[in-house]
Amino acid sequence: MAVPDPTALDERHSEEAARIDWPLLERLPAMLQREQCSAEACRSALKSAHEELRARFLADEPVEALVRARARFTDTLLATLWQSRLEGGLADRLGLIAVGGYGRGELHPYSDVDILVLVPAPLADQDRARVEQFVAFLWDIGLEVGHSVRTVAECAEESAADVGVMTTLLEARPLAGATELVRLMRAALAPDRVWPVREFFEAKVREQRERHQKANDTAYNLEPNVKTGPGGLRDIQTIAWVAKRHFGAESLDELVTHGFLTPSELRRLKQAQAFLWKVRFGLHTLATRHEDRLLFDHQIKLAQTFGYEDASYTLAVEQLMQRYYRTVNDVKLLNELLLQLFREAILTDNAPPQPLNARFQVRNDYLEAIGDDLFERQPSALLELFVVLQQSPGIKGVRANTIRAISRNLWLIDEEFRQNPRNHRLFLDVLRAPRGVTHELRRMNDYGVLGRYIPAFGRVVGRMQYDLFHAYTVDAHTLFVVSNLRRLAMPEFDHELPLVSPIMQQLPKPEVAYLGALFHDIAKGRGGDHSELGAVDAEAFCLEQGLSRYDARMVAWLVRNHLLFSVTAQKQDIGDPRVVSDFARQIGDETHLDYLYVLTCADVRGTNPRLWNSWKASLFQDFYDKVKRALRRGLESPIDQDELLRENQAAARGLLAGLQPGREAVERVWARLPAAYFLRHTPEEIAWHTRVLARGQAGDDHGAEAVVAVETDTERGTTAVLIYAAHRRHGFARATAVLDQLGLTIVDARITPANNGFSLDSYHVLEEDGTPITDAERLGEIERALWDSLQRSDDASLAVSRRAPRQVRVFRTPTQITIGVDERNRRSVVELVAGDRPGLLCDVGKVLWEERIDLHAAKIATLGERAEDVFYVTGRDQLPLDGVAAERLRTRLVAALDQRAA
């Protein structure tokens, strides 16, 4: 491989620099010489340059000019300082080289300035000290410099050991001093000496794959890294590095010359790079530091800076982020196409193609369309391609020329195409395939086929929701839900959800669940109820595809009701037989329940990696079992409370049989507990509480000894906390303050007044990461903290000093309180929506205490930055709150929570 001529490269960079029209740059050398290159003069020049570039950025000047102007300014500054501060001929004997991104002539406001001091031989101590003083001076004037001092031989040795060093030096550009050393270094790093093209290509592809995996292999994370995330600037640089190593290309334009890109693809790649540069430049400007993460903190400000405005159903920030996600998806596609072309050019020996059918063949393990005009002649092949990939698992991917042909012919997927029965069969074949359903749906989305075949899906591609609950864009989330359903359907993943997988695997038509997943969020961003709007789209699509009317209505029903199961389980008292019976009536039969249950589990797991935990799995499974039992029992004969109470007590006795305490002790404990206790708790909880309370005085005739206990292994997948103590109205506030201060997540609370003046309070908690507590020392810490709280006087202060996480503090959720009456259970139901933060439950508890309102149970749900909690309460007369008391409570809660949020 020929070594690029450094003289020619230097001339090209000089020509680019000459095109930068910037008076400050022209004045800089004379200004520095006049001030004898003093530190103060350099700082002043840097400050002026920074302010001018910032002003030009805010005036919407093309970012390409700004990025290169900053690099050129830094070139001039460093070259001038090199000559002025290295005396005695040292500046001429050594080479000052820009490397990395700076070597490409690209600098953002707070990018590191990476330099290499290239030396002909190891430096004497005195010369090394002078070089170190030079670098220290650069830091002193405000440049963040990454530097190394190496000989040519050391460069070759370091590069051979680390492809990252090789890549950095691949960008080397001389700034001042001994430029002949650059020529020697490039010769030493030539592909015939270190990192041959084939090995370099494989290393960069492997590096990119590992980088993508760190981002969950999706470009659609809600706080993406604009530099290193999938589809980010690093993916464009990977293309450039491989091209440079393979045939010495110095710019993306040369990819057209060498036949790797079409002019239109080059234009798309450059537009994507310019947009990503603009985002990165804006991030640095807003953060006033090196920042490549598109954090929530910056997204709104960046949208305002770029001139986006809120629309009827879409926020300005959502418009910005949709453009970002669509841009990085385009980069991902072009990156895949180019790396595939490079792979064919660098790694592959052209073996004869192996025909699969009249339309497709396999060449070097990649699928290829037979004929450049295949899709024009037979548009249905645009769908058949994905069926062929499913049927041939040995195929590694799609050849670049075929990817390009798909993009070129997407316009063929029009209304006539969508009405073609052959295409209906092909699409359903994709969904019904035994393997590769998720993989090919994702590929269809990446190539733009899915959004053309289902236009409503195309409108949600890249659509984000500005909250912490939804961790991915709508299309990425949707495909994660399909993926979760597929894993439930495959026996090798039974260990993930062992109780749900068998239900999925016995569904009569799994494709009905997949279609429900594809459409469940498809109407997001339109205004109105997305479940209702999506159900209309789903039924129409399914009927068009030839599904039976029953199946089409089942899909529409799933879309319309996809939130019903999770909302009921998390916000209503599923220990109440009436709640279960009412829900069973809404569902109608076991088939609808099974489909809805698996879709719910897949949906919650695909919304946010932190959302699904053992508690939620247990809660959903418990509710599913209760509803299934109700359906099998018959809707006309629902279970009543007395029957459920007897069943729970009998089951608890069975768990206690043969163990301590004895029967008499059990009866003494239970005699002090109201009937409602046995309805609200599971037999396992009742048995555990009984064992704890029967020990010592807690179970005697008086039961007057306080108890604190923690149980690690619970059937609910949580750590259970039991507090049995004299009833105090502020008990909930104190307990939640302690648990919250310890960094625990409270997912459930139940307060049961005993008839001896005590209260049995049970809490289910998890660590912040959603896991139960298992460490013995941590369990002891929880018990001690709760015991200490019990010893405090009633007037001791209550406070949680822990700060809310950064992401949560960005959002402002208006407090909403609604208070209704549960007539059947003679209690009031307080529903709260507010911004989540440490101390929220404690503040609620304090208001209840001050208003002399008794809390009986709480359902705690944290949805990203939002707390959506439900509290079951009564007044001091143990009856539902009257209108005046309810309004006073609502006012007090809003005032207390808004005051703390402010």
Short structural summary:
The protein has about 900 residues and is α+β, with helices and mostly antiparallel strands. Helix content is about 55%, strand content about 10%.
Descriptive overview:
- The protein has 902 residues and is of the alpha+beta class.
- It contains 42 helices and 17 strands.
- Strand 5 and strand 6 (360-363) form a beta hairpin.
- Mean pLDDT is 89; it is low at 1-18.
Shape: globular
Helix content: 55-70%
Low-confidence stretches: 1-18
Tell me about the largest β-sheet: 9 strands, antiparallel
Radius of gyration: 33 Å
Please count the beta strands (DSSP E, at least 2 residues each). 17
| Termini gap | 65 Å
Tally of DSSP helical segments? 42
Query: Overall mean pLDDT score?
Result: 89
What percentage of the residues does DSSP assign to strands (E)? Answer: 5-15%
Sheet/helix structural class: alpha+beta
Question: Layout of SSEs?
Answer:
Elements: H1 6-18, H2 23-34, H3 39-58, H4 63-85, H5 90-93, E1 95-98, H6 100-103, E2 113-119, H7 125-140, E3 145-151, H8 152-161, H9 163-170, E4 173-177, H10 180-188, H11 197-214, H12 233-247, H13 254-257, H14 263-287, H15 296-305, H16 316-346, E5 354-355, E6 360-363, E7 366-369, H17 374-377, H18 381-391, E8 397-398, H19 400-408, H20 415-418, H21 421-432, H22 437-447, H23 449-453, H24 455-460, H25 474-489, H26 501-505, H27 510-519, H28 530-544, H29 549-560, H30 564-571, H31 577-587, H32 590-607, H33 614-633, H34 641-656, H35 663-671, H36 675-680, H37 683-694, E9 707-711, E10 719-726, H38 731-741, E11 745-753, E12 758-766, H39 776-791, H40 806-810, E13 816-822, E14 827-835, H41 840-850, E15 854-859, E16 862-863, E17 866-874, H42 883-901
Parallel strand pairs: 2-3, 7-8
Antiparallel strand pairs: 1-2, 1-4, 5-6, 6-7, 9-10, 10-12, 11-12, 11-15, 13-14, 14-17, 15-17, 16-17
